[in-house]
Amino acid sequence: MTRAQLFEQILQKKSYLCVGLDTDPEKLPEHLLDTEDPVFEFNRQIIDATADLCVAYKPNIAFYEAQGPVGWMSLSKTLQHIPDNIFTIADAKRGDIGNTSELYARAFFDTMSFDSITVAPYMGSDSVTPFLRKEGKWVILLALTSNPGSQDFQMLPLKNGEPEYLFEQVLKTSATWATPDNMMYVVGATRADFVERVRAIVPDSFLLVPGVGAQGGSLEDISRLGMNKECGLLVNSTRAIIYASSGRDFAEKAREAALEVQQEMAQYLEKFL
Ligand SMILES: O=C(O)c1cc(=O)[nH]c(=O)n1[C@@H]1O[C@H](COP(=O)(O)O)[C@@H](O)[C@H]1O
After folding, report:
1. In whole angstroms, what is the distance from residue 250 CA to residue 102 CA?
2. For the stretch 113-145, what's the b/e string if a residue is b when 16 or more beta carbons lie within 10 angstroms of its beta carbon?
3. In the list 127, 176, 184, 226, which could disulfide-bond 195, CB 3.0-4.6 Å?
4. Catalytic pick among 27, 77, 93, 134
5. Organism's domain of life (predicted)?
6. Domain boundaries of the chain, sorted by first residue
7. pLDDT profile of the chain (273 residues), mean per 10
8. Which residues form the pocket of ligand 1, taking CB atoms under 6 Å from any ligand atom?
9. ipTM beyond 0.95?
10. Which of 22, 119, 206, 207 for a ligand 1 pocket mutation test, highest count of atoms within 8 Å of Cβ?
């Protein structure tokens, strides 16, 4: 999917919501447990209930890997069930020496046909560029993450003239490997106070913003400070949507939670409409 197609979908749906599919077998509603593939059945109903309200789905691969081969099957069926015009993110946080990254790229872009993958920048250019060689596919590079540990390395001040943080150097260097048409950046909603510094370096790139909902980040702040001329935001919410209810009405409640976020997003998108 191209950047223009993504923006078009955002305008059409009045939404830049990404629904996380971090499906924990221990949190499934009881009535699904005797279906053939409870994880897929859960995802199927969540997707059917939210597909008109969001522009992306992001399964976090850990939740599927943890189940072994059965989990990979549930993931693959889930991916096939997502409508073609919705952007898909393999939240796998990969990155390794070049020839290994090549294989990760093959796994997530060819064997499974995700549109994008989250990648850690720590091993540098040759660990990231193999993911950039496939037309129409995207890298989503970790820049300033939502968790408390982002303080440990990403916020380290560098002593090279201008005061800047390590995450800013990551943005500057990685922007020379790719373009806003094949690289996005993860910036946590809990880090909204730094998003203007992010935008100063990557004004045109899409940002994947996790951390609203369960982690307490503000949709309003990140939208006000982070939006660019083509929206430029995909805001993820997972637990607050998919676990809005643990009962038989889980899909209906997920839809209500997604609708609430989408309606707030529609207000922030008014300037484009
Ligand atoms: O790459 C991510 O998606 C990610 C980066 C980050 O900085 N923080 C973060 O929470 N995430 C992911 O986003 C999702 C957040 O889920 P909720 O907190 O339930 O909305 C999880 O899948 C996390 O792994």
Report:
1. 39
2. ebbbbbbbbeeeeebbbbbbeeeebbbbbbbbb
3. 226
4. 93
5. Bacteria
6. 3-272
7. 96 98 97 97 98 98 98 98 98 98 98 98 98 96 97 91 88 98 98 96 98 94 97 98 98 98 98 88
8. 20, 22, 60, 91, 118, 145-147, 186, 188, 210-211, 213-215, 236-239
9. yes
10. 22
